[in-house]
Design brief:
The protein has one domain: 3-Layer(aba) Sandwich (Rossmann fold). It has five helices and ten strands; from the N terminus they run H-E-E-H-E-H-E-E-E-E-H-E-H-E-E. The structure holds guanosine-5',3'-tetraphosphate (G4P) and sodium ion (2 copies). Guanosine-5',3'-tetraphosphate (G4P) binds next to strand 2, strand 7 and helix 4.
Length: 193
Amino acid sequence: MDLLKNKILSEGVVLSDNVLKVDKFLNHQIDPELMVEIGKEFYNRFKDSEITKILTLESSGIAPAVMTALNFNVQAIFARKRKSLTFTDDLLSAQVFSYTKQETNMISVSNQFIQPGDNILIIDDFLANGEAAGALINIVEQAGANVSGVGIVIEKSFQSGASILKDKNYRVESLARISSLADHKVTFAGDTK
Ligand code: G4P
Ligand code: NA
Ligand code: NA
């Protein structure tokens, strides 16, 4: 997706060989026109899959998930990272291990929002080691629903997540695939160095 790649090149900041900062349009400030186009692009890639719901993880997955849900004319759900006063239903939960923080956190979704027979499209902002996507898949499968695919805004192809998911036969569609962040430079998969 050229619009996204150009945005990454013009506004992304390579913080290290592993981390790309995109808080000008995705992780803090959000670019609505880019989100609209991201929603259309995920729709085009998954439109043959009869998606019934979109599932993401708070917070940065919410904007692309909502724009995607709008195109499919379905509801968007976000898994929560913490409990709240009103979040007391029966919960589907899964653990997410963070390599950077070396800690495990629980994410949860109320069981009223995912039903057996649902075809769920999982959306997230980043795919690194696949921990978050794996936990979302776990929640969908606990509910007896089907994972139709995983839509990622920015895939770091040099980390393990994409290959782990593809090895398990999940369909992964990433709108930008980064093969390297070495030398303070973004290299997209398929680009010559
Ligand atoms: P980790 O293995 O490196 O610890 O990554 P993990 O998958 O646990 O993700 C930790 C958080 O960092 C996630 O956001 C994830 O989306 C984000 N993330 C992973 N790699 C990158 C990167 O290169 N750049 C940026 N900007 N973010 C990255 P989160 O904590 O769930 O926060 P939120 O933004 O969704 O609220
Ligand atoms: Na994030
Ligand atoms: Na995220």
